[in-house]
Design brief:
This protein is mainly α and 183 residues long. The chain is built from 10 helices and no strands. Helix 4 runs antiparallel to helix 5, helix 4 (61-74) crosses helix 7 (108-122) and helix 4 crosses helix 9 (142-163).
Length: 183
Amino acid sequence: MKTLKALKPDQVDNSTKEVFSAIEKKVGMLPNLYAAMGNSPELLKGFLSFEESLKKGTFTAKENEAIALAVSQANDCQYCLAAHSAIGKMAGFSEEEIIGIRLGNSDRKMNALTKLTTELTEKRGKTSETNIDEFLAVGYTHQALTELIGMVAIRSITNYLYSNGDFEIDFPKAAILEEMAIA
């Protein structure tokens, strides 16, 4: 049973209203996921701070979105697939590249990143030496590996929130890969 609702500004305390307002100013809207995260002001504020910190790390905007897409695909989070498909396009990916990332069909470096991301997600942090070796062989560092673990964790938070949420996807829906395979 999905229980977390997207809250309206009149349903939260003043400090959370300020955070909602800042999100709306930055993004142009208050995404339902963040509005649901407002059920815990501490989670919302901590999440935004952690996310902002990781965005200053070693990964490019495109790599950050590829990580988000890989985690969301592994967790079957339709909300986050929609959001990160839209954000991925703003970062410079085409629709075909986004589908390729979700299917694991990209260039060698992107595949190493998304394969390790998927493995971290599906195996709850456990990784194979082969995938770590490939990740490092394509030019990523141990700092990047450490940040990747953080990125998987933060994207899992959003995926789990949607899995337990009762709110609409407020981004254009992402392609359903299974339907594409049938067509």
